[in-house]
User: What shape does this take?
Amino acid sequence: MAAFSKVLLGHGSGGRLSRDLVEQIFLKGFSNAALAPLEDAAEVTLGGARLAFTTDSYVVTPVEFPGADIGRVAVCGTVNDLAVKGAVPAALSAGFILEEGFPAPLLQRIVASMRRAAKEAGVEIVTGDTKVVEKGHADGVFINTSGIGLIPRGRSLTSASVKAGDIIIVSGDLAEHGVAVMNARNKLGLEGGIKSDAAPLNGLIAAALKVPGVRAIRDITRGGLATVLNEVSGACKLSAEVAEDAVPVSAAARNACALLGLDPLYVANEGKIVLFVSPAAAPRVLKALRAHKYGRHAAVVGTMLREKKPQVRLRTGIGGSRIMLMLEGEQLPRIC
Amino acid sequence: MKTSAAEKFSSPLWRDRALAATALAEMETLTARAAAKTGTTVNFMEVCGTHTMAIAASGMRRLFPKGLRMLSGPGCPVCVTSQGDIDRVLALAAVPGVIITTFGDMLKVKGSGGRDLQALREAGADVRVVYSPLDAVALAAAEPARQVVFIGVGFETTAPVIAGAVVRARKAGLKNFSSTAFFKLVPPALELLLSDPENRIHGFMLPGHVSAIIGLAPYRFVTEKYKVPCVVTGFEPLDILAGINMLLKQLAAGRPVVEDEYFRAVRAEGNPAAQKLMAEVFTVSAASWRAIGTLKATGLSFSKAYSSFDAIKRFRIPYSDAPEPRGCLCGKILLGKALPPDCPLFGKRCTPSSAVGPCMVSSEGACAAWFKYGG
Assistant: This one.
């Protein structure tokens, strides 16, 4: 772990640098048992009830892009952080930091989009806050959402509980959100109609959890599948082996990534999860996922293995194999 | 949904496992035959950084026959840029009021003072990542009060695009757009490698993208004068396996020629329009190569007619011949004389998030490929 003197853009990438930032400054500063596992939501007990509690801030340029907008992502991201812990989302908050001059009609569209996403997820935004800063002191709009949810009795989904032999299932096509935003941001004019996958996944997750044997679920956001697998591998001290052929990526997203020199396994998603399930449960979980509209392309992508030196490995399409590290900083588009 | 043009180039067939297994089995036999000729391990060089990355990402190195080794060559644009030229880029970024526009790869290459463009940006310099030099021209048009500089580096692939941007800026009468022209040419780089008596290269996997521009003729000297096999190769896993097998066959038969495996993209005559654009805006000149030095007629700089677009001249940036970082083996790696794990800094002091040399910085760099994918 490298000490750093200043916050870099890479510290926000969701990869190894983000981990450094959290561990060296926040984990050290706030140290407590609920925070320590660094999962998508913390678990707190209140009056005998087990609550999942999470918060996330959203900054994205442009604020609207094909398939979604900052508001939809802000609601879905927080709903999903609760749902992957097995919690039933109960209520959300929303805080807005607005830059002076931000167009009111655009803000109305964002709010309407948040309401639609919340309705779909079956939650309400019950409290909020606004601050306006001088022009130039923010980039249009920043949104923070927090959420609480109830974890049903007897349910426990943690990365540490993943076992050797467990099957890794991904809920659908990867890399769509990251490519859609990059395409919109830089007006790349990529073909194929790639749209952000931002979606509330609590319904999908509830369907999967009807099958006993799901040990952990993670949402695959910044840093992509490769980064999440490294985090889980670190927590359960097992290797993850993924078959490249099996990872669902649409042809359009694959081509866009090839053009930009990006690896789809490291690109952000806002509506995809990875599940770690017992081998016996895998076929039924897969079936449950595929029956849901947000899980139609769900696929078994790999297995967890006990090995002396746990690592995350990709079996490539042509039969080779290579390691997959955590994202190191930002993925930068290449020169040629 | 419209079928993208890219489909043709990256259909799943190019990653088909059964076809790959057939190609690898053939490679086994061919390597044995070729090794009988060379009497040693067969060393091929992939000249292009995109090949380096594709080989590593597909995990095929572990599938190669024992007697075959792929060496990375001097084909990563960031990697071959000399320390002095990097320092000049940083000097440009320090000119008050200038907007630096660059491809992302250049952000994290350290100058001899240990700072990179990213650090200058954090300290207040206006540095923006663009996806095309045309974006930089558009920015110049939108910001007439600012000077917009594009950081032009690379080979015959990027040079025509930047030439196109310069021509557009001239047509639009933009006085506030300029670019660097730290361009390198691939054929002279091959000559440089071959003229070294210590070279151990038995064949070149030639870059598909560069060849799509320059065609096949500029490589003839490699097979005619140096008798070294050449195959222009595409970037999908099966392209690469096929390219290697074609090289092995040439080697075993003792008949070196310039072959084109990537004929779905590369024509023998190249791209005449791009060649014309390059010839109009640039002229063949000396270039400074990392760890090699300044060599005559190995690069491109602005032609007389377009010299007013040369950012180095416009801002009077002095020449710099700063040395490369100590202990860094980038130079040897670029020449195929060392592999990334041979470097004492590799994976220790030098990692992608804290890189010492450019081969670790660039996403196309040999060290980055070995680090990220484990070779």
Q: What stands out?
A: The CA atoms of residues 328 and 357 of chain B lie 6 Å apart. Residues 38-375 of chain B form a domain with the Rossmann fold fold (CATH 3.40.50.11740). The two ends of chain B are 37 Å apart (CA to CA).
